[in-house]
Amino acid sequence: MAKPQVAVVGAGAFGGWTALNLLNRGATVTLIDAWGPGNPRASSGGETRVIRGTYGADSPYTEMTARAFRLWEEHEKKWKQRFLFRTGVLWMASTGEDSFERGSIDMLRAAKIPYESLFASDIKKRWPQINLEGVHWAVYEPKSGYLLARSSCHAVVDAFVASGGKYKNVAVLPDRLETGTWKALRLSDGSKLSADHYVFACGPWLGKLFPQTIGSLVRSTKQEMFFFGSPPGDTRFDDQHLPVWGDHRDRFHYGIPANHGRGFKLADDTRGPSFDPTTGDRTVTTAGLKAIRDYLAMRFPALKDAPLLESRVCQYEQTPDEHFIVDHHPRAENVWVLGGGSGHGFKHGPVIGEMMADLLLSDGVSEPYFRLERFRKVKRRPTTGKHKQTAKN
């Protein structure tokens, strides 16, 4: 049988891993991206991302994280590169509502992700540099931590090309994509790309390419990140002495300790205003910096007057329920839409790539919480697929 021809649009965490998995499964794959893997406009850009299994109760993502750990480790060994740093992840629970943290424990246990429940007194003994005002207890994942983002995106594409995949640095033009009747993609360099199957994993641009099917279901929000410098010779805030952490209060803050010569990363996870990923101004606001400094002074007093080393603006590609989108286009069975990382998708890239390859090559059907029909009634062509793909495969 002839190899299936697949075009994957977007070389970020979802698209890159999808292209690599399809190639390894025998497909002929062309991967394209407008600005390249891990570029500053992409949701997969930047230096680091958190990898953790704490997701609350009844979430598919804890089990997916467990699978992601194994896949990240396998590829580290295969490529002889390191992307995963197991600093531990500390999820601090406030003295008020802590159902999210409590609901996570059974899920962590079921997925066999190591964890500890720590009282505030335990936290204070281990990490006295944290002011525990308002913190009652915490979920601690000693084997979780952070991933290198930009460098791993490049490594995936490098491996894809080295294995025989074709990569092009070019953009797709939004020409009649919603009709489902087109035979080839029109590209920004004037060429066309034809395939048997198409996967659109283009992050915050998904709604622009498919305004009717996706539209505002993927909303791009402006997120500000800050990197602070610790006092000279003070190593309490680097990744050898502090875990990745999350502070689940009225506003959720999180941070990644200083690493690889970069500063102490701190961000407010609250969803920001709508943001254009192509033309948006990536300058942080004065109000955002003041608010983050106030928080820094409260939670990490020794960094009260720490210098700001870097700041950056990225974006979340947010769905209304924070679940991913993994589904056929309703008017084209050979077109898949893949995205909606919602600020937590990066760690799952290897799992999503594996899942997407299985679905496409077996004509499968994704889980209900990934389908477009969860948002609204969608008229779709009947599918011939008989295989139901689960997130854990």
Fold blueprint:
Blueprint: E1 5-9, H1 13-24, E2 28-33, E3 48-51, H2 61-79, E4 84-85, E5 89-94, H3 99-111, E6 116-119, H4 120-126, E7 135-141, E8 145-148, H5 150-162, E9 166-169, E10 185-186, E11 192-193, E12 197-200, H6 206-209, E13 219-228, E14 244-248, E15 252-256, E16 264-268, H7 286-299, E17 308-318, E18 325-329, E19 332-339, H8 349-362
Parallel strand pairs: 1-2, 1-12, 2-9, 5-14, 12-19
Antiparallel strand pairs: 3-8, 4-8, 5-7, 6-7, 10-11, 13-16, 13-17, 14-15, 15-16, 18-19
Give a verbal description of the structure:
This protein starts with a strand and ends in a 31-residue tail after the last helix. Helix 1 (13-24) packs parallel to helix 5 (150-162), helix 1 (13-24) crosses helix 8 and helix 2 (61-79) crosses helix 3 (99-111). Strand 1, helix 1 and strand 2 (28-33) form a beta-alpha-beta unit. Helices cover 24% and strands 25% of the residues. Residues 378-393 have low confidence and may be disordered. An eight-stranded mixed sheet has the order 6-7-5-14-15-16-13-17, sandwiched between helices. It has two domains: 5-44 and 150-218 and 321-374, FAD/NAD(P)-binding domain (3-Layer(bba) Sandwich), CATH 3.50.50.60; 84-144 and 226-317, D-Amino Acid Oxidase, Chain A, domain 2 (2-Layer Sandwich), CATH 3.30.9.10. With 393 residues, the chain is an alpha/beta fold. The chain is globular, with a radius of gyration of 21 Å. The relative contact order is 0.18.
